[in-house]
């Protein structure tokens, strides 16, 4: 029996179905003995789970066919095209191992501790663990090189088949570093600007109007993220509590949640969305502690709302959308390729895919996306007036107000770290940690808004 396989809460998400459920494995084959070097760089070094995901995805994208004799070569090296070769490639091992020679490189773990990039192993077969296909955590979703006639692919295993495998972890896998602190700039459809003064250890300041002066201290030094729209200000404190208000000033904050929240968003129509520490989304309108409606299962990693449209990005990289508060009514918008989402109050949706390409559309549904850029973008923002902002890999900001590949105007030199836009106002945080603002599309007209705040 597999090690530690009671149905228990897991660090891994429940992910979408991945085709027919697998109930039996491939026919037994001799272990390959040709353990060729992979010609990879910095092999056997510590590797993050996000790097494992990137490497593994490359074989799924290339549709690498199963073979115990052929080797697939790409930017990550040359590896044998079977189950253990695939895992060796994903883990950046110095050669294509077999299921037995992998054993000294792995440790046993409990099923409840499985995370993306761990493995399910038995003699003769191994697969990368992706997530769970059911709330009971009995049917794993895996990436694997399965058998002749198949390509590297994502599949769902039945509970009975999964129970014949042992949960394993590569000894050199490491957790991803936490993301950098939120830049702490936000602008609402009414022109309210919120900034987070990290040099003040987490104090929020607010104002209306462009210029260096006029900031009002809004909080004590307890804040880690800010959001504003439609006249509503939201703050997320360092302990995970959300507070809200609709006036500028130090007082009148209302507690909205217990200390369980990891992300916040607010739309021009006053819709508030929160993402809790399980990956579940809740939403409501109105300031106060009560009235939250559960919107999703525990599968979400990013949220956005504006103009009555709610967007979520799930743990597979798939975007879903709807235009009402409640658990049902989500429409799938994309394949599992997206890294970031934004939506304007005019309904313009922006997505940034895993290649760095931006696409846009203005309706809910799977189709209708228009490519907006080449694969060069790191951040996106959409405003209530239709303004789109992008930040490219050099730190340059570009903007436009129509959907399509052309029409971008360069807004800055290559000096910017973060962007925000709404209500006709554009905000940037430059690499000196200074905020600047303006109200029109073009290279000139930026006004210094703050001293260094981060």
Automatic annotation (TrEMBL):
Residues 1-20 have a biased composition (Low complexity). Residues 1-36 are annotated as: Disordered. The lineage of its organism: Bacteria, Bacillati, Actinomycetota, Actinomycetes, Pseudonocardiales. This is Uncharacterized protein.
């Amino acid at each position: 029996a597999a090690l530690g396989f009671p149905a228990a809460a897991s660090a891994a998400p429940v992910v979408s179905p991945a085709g027919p459920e697998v109930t039996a494995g491939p026919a037994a084959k001799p272990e390959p003995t040709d353990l060729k070097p992979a010609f990879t760089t910095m092999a056997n070094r510590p590797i993050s789970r996000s790097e494992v995901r990137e490497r593994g995805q490359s074989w799924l994208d290339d549709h690498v066919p199963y073979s115990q004799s052929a080797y697939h070569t790409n930017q990550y090296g040359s590896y044998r095209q079977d189950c253990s070769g695939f895992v060796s490639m994903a883990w950046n091992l110095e050669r294509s191992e077999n299921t037995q020679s992998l054993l000294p490189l792995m440790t046993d773990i409990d099923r409840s501790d499985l995370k993306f990039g761990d493995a399910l192993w038995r003699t003769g077969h191994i697969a990368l663990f992706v997530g769970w296909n059911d709330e009971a955590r009995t049917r794993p979703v895996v990436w694997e090189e399965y058998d002749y006639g198949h390509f590297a692919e994502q599949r769902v295993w039945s509970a009975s088949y999964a129970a014949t495998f042992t949960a394993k972890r590569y000894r050199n896998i490491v957790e991803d570093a936490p993301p950098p602190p939120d830049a702490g700039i936000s602008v609402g459809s009414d022109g309210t600007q919120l900034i987070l003064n990290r040099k003040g250890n987490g104090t929020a300041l607010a104002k209306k109007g462009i210029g260096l002066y006029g900031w009002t201290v809004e909080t004590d030094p307890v804040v880690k993220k800010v959001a504003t729209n439609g006249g509503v200000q939201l703050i997320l404190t360092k302990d995970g509590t959300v507070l809200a208000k609709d006036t500028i000033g130090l007082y009148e904050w209302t507690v909205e949640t217990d200390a369980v929240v990891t992300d916040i968003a607010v739309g021009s129509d006053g819709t508030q969305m929160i993402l809790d520490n399980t990956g579940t989304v809740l939403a409501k309108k109105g300031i106060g502690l009560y009235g939250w409606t559960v919107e999703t299962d525990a599968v979400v990693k990013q949220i956005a709302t504006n103009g009555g449209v709610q967007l979520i990005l799930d743990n597979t990289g798939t975007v879903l959308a709807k235009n009402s508060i409640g658990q049902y009514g989500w429409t799938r918008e994309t394949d599992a390729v997206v890294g970031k989402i934004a939506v304007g109050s005019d309904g313009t949706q922006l997505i940034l895919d895993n290649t760095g390409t931006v696409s846009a559309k203005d309706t809910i549904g799977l189709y209708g996306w228009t490519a907006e850029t080449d694969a060069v973008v790191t951040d996106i923002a959409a405003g209530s007036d239709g303004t789109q902002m992008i930040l490219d890999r050099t730190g340059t900001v570009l903007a436009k107000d129509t959907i399509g590949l052309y029409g971008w105007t360069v807004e800055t030199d290559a000096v910017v770290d973060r962007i925000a836009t709404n209500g006709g106002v554009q905000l940037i945080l430059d690499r000196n940690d200074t905020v600047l603002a303006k109200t029109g599309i073009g290279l000139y007209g930026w006004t210094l808004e703050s001293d260094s705040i981060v």
